[in-house]
TrEMBL record:
The keyword Transmembrane helix applies. Pfam families: Aa_trans (PF01490). Residues 94-491 form the Amino acid transporter transmembrane domain. This is N amino acid transport system protein. It comes from Trichosporon asahii var. asahii (strain CBS 8904). The chain crosses the membrane at residues 96-115, 121-145, 166-192, 212-230, 242-261, 281-305, 317-340, 360-378, 399-419, 425-445, 466-489. Keywords: Membrane, Transmembrane, Transmembrane helix. Belongs to the amino acid/polyamine transporter 2 family. It is a multi-pass membrane protein. One of its GO terms (cellular component) is membrane.
Amino acid sequence: MSDKYAREASIEKYDGYTPNGDVVDDIDIEKGNTHLPAYVTQPNGQLSKDDTITKVLEVNGFHRHKEKTAPGQTDADRVEYISEVTAHGEKKFHKLTWFQLVIVLVITAVALGTLSMPLVFASLGMVGGTILTVGMGCMAVYTSFVIGQVKLRYPQVHHYSDVGRLLLPGTAGVILSRCLEVIFVFFIILGIGSHFLTGKMAFQTIVDDTTICALVWSVVTLVLLFLCALPPSFAEMSVLGYVDFISIMSAVFVTLIAAGIDAHSKGWNTGWTAGAGNVTFVQGMLAACNVLFAYAFSIGQFTYMEEMARPEDFPKAVGVLGIVMITIYTCVGALGYAFIGPGVKGPALLSAGHTISRVAFGLALPVIFISGAILVTTDGRFIMDKLFKNNIVRYVNTARGWAVWICVVLGLVLCSWIIAEVIPVFSPLLGITAALFNSAFTLYLPGIMWFKLIKEGGCFSSPKNIALTIVNAIIIAVGLTILGAGTYASVQDIVDSYAGKSVGKPFSCKA
């Protein structure tokens, strides 16, 4: 077997950690430390021919001889086959450009969060809504830069949960990493659930037939979202990003234009105010949570950067995305509130009158399913990489790989669908998702990463460090505040919605 195949077939490569979970620096490898796996200290990290065959045919109990192409193959034939599948898979999942990353992040961020912005401004007033939207956006963009720096400095971080082993040493880091894995999966499942609610709402509004049970439209949404989520790579999904962006912007513009015409006919007297008015604590915190949800793009950044051909280009993507997001959210929120007034609904597409709402939801159908699908793909890729780290199944380019991928996607959409039926309220579902999980992934965890992994020198050793210390301390404080107060407000709003019978029971025909 050639050196090429020995190199490509070494499926179980050094992952940047010692056996007990500690992070290993490059200098440890150069010194030939004995605590590292044997194949790490060999030239170029390559295995010998015999070791390569052993590793490929049997890794962690996965017997690779099951991956046969024809009867009577030798071990070398099987290793060559697996090497070719692996090489194809690596190429397939490492071709994302920085501009494609922008598209993927746009799909993730500028979606359903946009539809909640006018309601945020209605709760906090024009001034409060603008300050919160711009301020939260700046924090989200900054923490995204921190996440990108961590990825470049620690290439062994493939997904967000891997950061756990960087933040804490030894067993504690491994435990934190496992906890983050569960939180990561559940967070995205909740995000997918919001797309089920919006999809059901869209079909009900478009068809306008109250005799059809709402659960029917919920199942239709489930099937369509499952089909849209089948492509396994982000490069493939990014092609749909243009359709996604045009879809959400068209729906929003139609709503705003119609609302503007109506406001003009009323002499622009819609009742909007600069101040917050009589906003309650629950309403204020729910508004903050909804804004945070709108900036929930960094959750998948490690995963997306893992597929980039040049990860060092990430600042271009984050910079472009930040400008686009802050501009869109502020304009949509301010104009929607100014044109519609305090009576704006969530999602905002319901606020422009019956006929216009039907048109707007029709235009929004692509974004509902494409953005939902990218979330399923993000969770699916994470699960595949974790369950099949040492197996070519994770590349989804064999019959077995496709079978497993389809099962993973189906499981994710079913779990999300069940949660959406149990919590059938749009704004509180976004709020509780942001409060519990996005407060961590977008705010306080990146702040902690800067102190632990990025900061060079003491906190007050230079003007730059002093400024960044203050910035990251504020971000951590904001994140922890939203975690506590935001969760309380979201749960209270859900309880109030059920008590007031403004929503139907789970799995019922009432939306």
